[in-house]
Each structure stands twice: as C-alpha cells, then as structure tokens.
C-alpha cells in the first residue's frame, strides 16, 4: 500500500536520505570510462538509474564536464530539435497560510502587498496577455482556504472564456498547493494542462527547517501530492526542486527518485521538471542569502545532468534566470521557457512598480515576449505556442512525442510553425515578423516533399486569416 498522508513520522517514503547520501559517496571519483558509458546510454535515449546519475554528478575534471555538456547538447538536439515552447505565469492570488522561509508570500512577511484577482481583474490580465500573443499560461496561487478547488476551477474556466480578437489562451497549467483526490477531480473538470508541485527540497531535515508552520510543513503530504493528482485522473504532472536550500547534487537525486516513483506506480513519469534557483524577495532574508546558493557553473551542470538522466522529460526554465544564463542552458536541454513575464498580482494589466517590487521574488529576465521571440529566431530556434496534443486529447503527449516514430515530424514541427506563423501575423513587431517568416521558410524547406505541401497549405490558411490550424 502506498502512503498518501504520512500519519507516522517514521513511515517510509520513496525518499531515503541515507541511501541517496551513500550512493553519492560510493560513486566519488568516477573513471572516465564509466562516465562515457553512461553518456552513451543517455544518447540511446534511456533513462538513467540513480547510481548512474550520481556517477555523473561526481565527475571531477573539466574535461569530463565538457564531455557531459557536449552529450547534453547532442541529446537535446536529437530528441527535441530546435523547438522552444513559450508560456507566461499568471499570479492569481498571494494570500498564504504557510511560512516558507524563502518566499515573499509567506504569512509572516508584512512587506508584501496581498492581493487576489477579482474575476473582472483576472479577465483584464488575460486580455493583456492574449494581446501580447500568449497562448499558454501557468496560473499560480498561494496556499489559502480562499483558493479552494472550486475557486481554482472557476478562475481557469474564466481564463479559457476570455477571447480577444483572434486570440485566446489555449492551455492553462497550474502551480498550486497539493490537493485531495476529490479536489483534483474538480480542477480537472475545467481542462487543465500540467499540474505542478515543487517539492522545494528532498532533504527532510532541511524541509522541516524551511517549512516550520502550516499545511506545507508535512513533507509526505506534498511528496505524494502528484500521486493524488494521478489518482484523480490528471496524468500530466510536473515536479521541481528549489535550488539553494540544500546541496544541489542531493536535490538532483531527489528529482530522479521522484521520477522513478511516478514511472513505477503510474507507468508514466513527470511531464516536466523545473529547477528554479532562489531569487531575492522583499522582506525575506533567506531568499537573499540562501544556505546552499548555486553558482552559474553548477546551474549548468544541473540542467545538463537532468537532460541526460531523463531524456523524455520536458525541462522548464523560468524568467527567474538572467538572459545570459537562459541562453546557455537552452542549448543544454531546456525545452520550455516563460517570456514577457510579470509576477506581481495584477501587473500585466496595470504596471504598478510598487506591486512588482513587493511580489514573490525579483525576476532576472524582463524582456518582452516579442524580444524573446526575436532572440530565439536569431539563434535559429522555432518559438512554439503549440497546444495541439492536449486539445486533441492526445494525453501523455510528451511521452508520445518520442514513443511514436515520426511523431515530432508529423505533429510537433508543423504545429510549432503554425503557431509561430499566427504569432507573426497577429502580434509581432516588424523585425520579428521579418526574421520569423525567414525561419519558417527555412524550416519548411527541411521537410520531405509530401509534408512540405501540407504544411505550406496550413501556413497559407493562416496567412488568409484562418486561426487555430493544427494537426
Ligand atoms: N503556494 C504553492 C506552493 O508553494 O506550492 C504554489 C505557488 S508557489 C508561489 C510556487 C513556487 O515558487 C514554489 O513552489 C517555490 O519553489 C517557488 N518560490 C518561492 N519562493 C521563491 C524564491 N524566493 N525564488 C524563486 N522561487 C521561489
Ligand atoms: Fe505560500 Fe507557496 Fe510561497 Fe510557501 S512557496 S509561502 S506555500 S506561496
């Protein structure tokens, strides 16, 4: 029997601190040959075992790390190609009854401005996002009785029903507190994409220290939060760790154990992994000086190892990171980024600098969506707003992308080009339009003859005004 709520403090979960520490210890100073064999396994697109991941984490020379980075870049190209999916976070409310040491929303922080969007204000926010060209959102909520499953469902429903001209939000992912199975079922009803819960840290003593009060202080309730989502029929879940609370190598191992647990129990691993680094937040000393701050070099290592460890899992990078870091880790394995983000509650439709300054944390990349798209195009990526699989009922889509031969070619690339073309026609600046059309042309030329015709046909339909063209 699996545990959903840990009633007994000593009950075992799938995270065994002693085991992780001992694997990390026993794999120290690995031989080059061993590392190279593991890299080969990754390049054959197989998920790595905890032992293999620990071996990579313990690579101890610059040369070996360069080989690891190179393998991650290769794998990224091989599995994902040059598509990058774009989304925006939308903060619905920051009332919170927890006291997470690192978060600006925590209950004891008197410096943060507390707000919850009214439905009218929520619609203003959605309109502002749609007008910029967004199609995919992640909605974010503090943990508070106000944010019941019914409230969450109602806000998402209103997002889907807010149309502006040619545009609308087509996929809403959720980052909210862990729910009961019944609660998840209510949220699932309105049609959500991924339900994300970050464990923050997999190191139990650190977890206890960082979450001293409130429902979040229960490590196991959170750890099994996505099991309950799966039991409620949400088969698309995202895990994550907040880097800076404990040793980064330990956290990477925690993420791998979590992945394996979901795979073993439900036959499908997480759709995405997030790996935010702690950012400074107003009135929050722990966020200013995290106990295990991760430097840029180690951050690159985290991305590369995750890419190699779980070849078929999407990796999400957020605008918490500055532009130069974003650029580097895109190459190493990131498949989704947010762009044009604002994390103040209500700050897309109303730019109040005070609200932005006094929000959850401070963003590192504040470029507009159009600027990000322009940069991506310049570097030969295909920015994509694709939501086709989820809406065609191809659930577990992320897995399908790779499990079905030719899937990426048949669906992902054309859909990425279609959504990019929509963006260019409806929202792009002149310079983005120009380069975007050029990139589309180049990408179409790479397709085989039969596909070229159907994709050209779809692109023409969009040029003539048709929207939401997809395979
Ligand atoms: N309240 C819900 C929860 O805690 O799961 C969901 C929203 S919470 C704002 C979303 C995530 O923000 C948390 O899981 C945490 O990883 C991240 N976060 C909190 N404080 C942060 C900080 N100072 N810097 C970066 N990320 C932070
Ligand atoms: Fe609340 Fe989530 Fe912030 Fe913790 S991380 S204080 S639960 S909003």
Automatic annotation (TrEMBL):
Gene3D superfamilies membership: Aldolase class I
One Pfam family of this chain: BATS
Keyword Magnesium found: no
Annotated SUPFAM superfamilies: Radical SAM enzymes
Required cofactor names: [4Fe-4S] cluster
Keywords in alphabetical order: 4Fe-4S, Iron, Iron-sulfur, Metal-binding, S-adenosyl-L-methionine
Domain Radical SAM core, residue spans: 80-312
InterPro entries: Aldolase_TIM, BATS_dom, FeFe-hyd_mat_HydG, rSAM, rSAM_sf, ThiH/NoCL/HydG-like
NCBIfam families listed in its UniProt record: rSAM_HydG
Protein name, per record: Thiamine biosynthesis protein ThiH
Source species of the chain: Thermosipho affectus
């Amino acid at each position: 029997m699996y545990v959903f709520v840990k009633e007994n403090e000593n009950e075992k979960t799938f995270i065994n601190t002693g085991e992780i520490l001992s694997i990390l210890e026993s794999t120290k100073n690995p031989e080059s040959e061993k590392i190279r064999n593991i890299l080969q396994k990754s390049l054959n697109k197989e998920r790595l075992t905890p032992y293999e991941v620990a071996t990579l984490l313990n690579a101890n020379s610059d040369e070996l790390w360069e080989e690891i980075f190179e393998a991650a870049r290769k794998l990224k190209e091989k599995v994902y190609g040059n598509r990058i999916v774009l989304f925006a976070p939308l903060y619905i409310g920051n009332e919170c009854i927890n006291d997470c040491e690192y978060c600006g929303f925590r209950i004891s922080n008197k410096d943060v401005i507390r707000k919850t969007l009214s439905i009218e204000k929520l619609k203003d926010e959605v309109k502002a996002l749609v007008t910029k060209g967004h199609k995919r959102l992640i909605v974010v909520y503090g943990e508070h009785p106000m944010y019941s499953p019914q409230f969450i469902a109602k806000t998402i429903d209103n997002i889907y029903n807010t149309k502006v001209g040619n545009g609308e939000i087509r996929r809403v992912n959720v980052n909210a507190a862990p729910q009961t199975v019944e609660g998840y079922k209510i949220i699932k009803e309105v049609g959500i994409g991924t339900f994300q819960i970050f464990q923050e840290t997999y190191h139990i003593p650190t977890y206890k220290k960082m979450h001293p009060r409130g429902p979040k202080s229960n490590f196991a309730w959170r750890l099994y939060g996505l099991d309950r989502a799966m039991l409620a029929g949400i088969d698309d879940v995202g895990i994550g760790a907040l880097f800076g609370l404990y040793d980064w190598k330990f956290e990477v191992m925690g993420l791998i154990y979590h992945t394996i647990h979901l795979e073993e129990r439900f036959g499908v691993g997480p759709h995405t992994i997030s790996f935010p680094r702690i950012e400074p937040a107003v009135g929050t000393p722990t966020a200013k000086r995290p106990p295990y701050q991760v430097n840029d070099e180690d951050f690159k290592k985290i991305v590369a190892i995750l890419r190699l460890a779980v070849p078929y899992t999407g990796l999400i990078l957020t605008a918490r990171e500055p532009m130069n870091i974003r650029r580097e880790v895109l190459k190493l394995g990131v498949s989704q980024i947010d762009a044009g983000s604002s994390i103040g509650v209500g700050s897309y439709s109303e730019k109040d600098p005070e609200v932005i300054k006094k929000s959850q944390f401070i963003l590192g990349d504040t470029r507009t969506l159009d600027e990000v798209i322009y940069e991506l195009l310049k570097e030969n990526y295909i920015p994509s707003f694709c939501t086709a699989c989820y809406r065609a009922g191809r659930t577990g889509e992320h897995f399908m992308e790779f499990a079905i031969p030719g899937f990426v070619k048949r669906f992902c690339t054309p859909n990425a080009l279609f959504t990019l073309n929509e963006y260019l026609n409806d929202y792009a600046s002149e310079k983005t339009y120009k380069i975007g059309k050029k990139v589309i042309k180049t990408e179409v030329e790479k397709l085989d003859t039969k596909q070229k015709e159907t994709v050209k046909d779809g692109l023409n339909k969009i040029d003539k005004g048709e929207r939401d063209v997809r395979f």
